[in-house]
Amino acid sequence: MSGNTQRSHLVLLDFSGTLSMGAVHFGSPENLSEALRKSGLQSLGVRNSKEFWSQCIVPFWNRGGTSAIGYTALLAEALRKQYAASPEKALEGAEHFRKLYFGASRIDDPWKPLLEFLGAPGKATGIIATDHYMDATEHIVKELERMNLRGISVKKSPEIPQGFLGIANSAELGFFKEEEGFWETLKGYIPYAGESIFLVEDFGANEPSGDVYGNSRRVLERRRKTGAHLRKVFRRSPEIFEFSLPRTYWKTPEILMQECAVRAKNITRRLKEALS
């Protein structure tokens, strides 16, 4: 184990829709429409949020979420193919849009106490496990640095060093979290002895209504598959802390963030008690 003590608890944390509500709130119709205007994508022909999802995201998501191509390159490709944008304009617009998206995808402050707890040397391995584009790994590292914490991709270290949070990104592992391959690949990187598994996850329930990832049927199926894969791969039943919020909260951002803070604080308390 390269000199590190094997840790006996595994805590898995989702990113978009859990640690970062901004990442999913960015995709609301009003926010997305503004981003399309600011980035220049609207002038390239992307008329509204519905069209953005159907033409620029959905057809390319499977490749973007399981390969190294990256958000900017994939969005630029979509703009060239779907809107006949020139390579220069497509790349310029895609990069501008990417900056807006990741700029909104901040880790919410109420999660900091839990992340500090998991990032400290101890018996728990904390992993931020996300279905995302390749760019997200570096972004999450920087977000952790903003909180005076340290993160590292599970693929860049033979095992996660003490004092670090691991980052398991579907784009790096080549599988989505609802696939067994994601967890099989992750297991090869983490110093985990097998005593207990905790999962903090929205399963896509908090995604914008226009995003097929947040389809209610797919959310339920994703929850079932993820739990089954964790049981099979790690031979332990995960304790799941579901972080889904009623759509009524989304109408008022202040109420939404207040509810997020309450739930994050409650999950943090329960996890600390379980890991003490």
What is the CATH domain class of the largest domain? Answer: Alpha Beta
The coarse overall form would be globular
* Widest β-sheet, arrangement of strands: 3-4-2-1-5-6
Q: Describe the sheet with the most strands.
A: 6 strands, parallel
CATH architecture of the largest domain: 3-Layer(aba) Sandwich
| Proportion in β-strands | 5-15%
Radius of gyration: 19 Å
Kindly give the count of domains.
2
Kindly state the percentage of residues in helix.
40-55%
Class based on secondary structure composition and strand pairing = alpha/beta
CATH topology of the largest domain: Rossmann fold
Overall average residue pLDDT: 91
Low-confidence stretches: none
Number of strands: 6
The run of helices and strands is EHHHHHHHEHEEHHEHEH
Cα-to-Cα separation, first versus last residue: 24 Å
Secondary structure tally, helices: 12
Task: Sum this structure up briefly.
The protein is α/β, with parallel strands linked by helices. It contains twelve helices and six strands.
Describe this structure in words.
The protein has 276 residues and is an alpha/beta fold. The protein folds into two domains: 7-21 and 107-275, Rossmann fold, CATH 3.40.50; 27-104. 49% of the residues lie in helices and 13% in strands. It is built from twelve helices and six strands. Strands 3-4-2-1-5-6 form a six-stranded parallel β-sheet. Helix 2 (29-39) packs across helix 6 and helix 5 (71-83) crosses helix 6 (87-104). It is globular, with a radius of gyration of 19 Å. The model has no long low-confidence stretch (mean pLDDT 91).
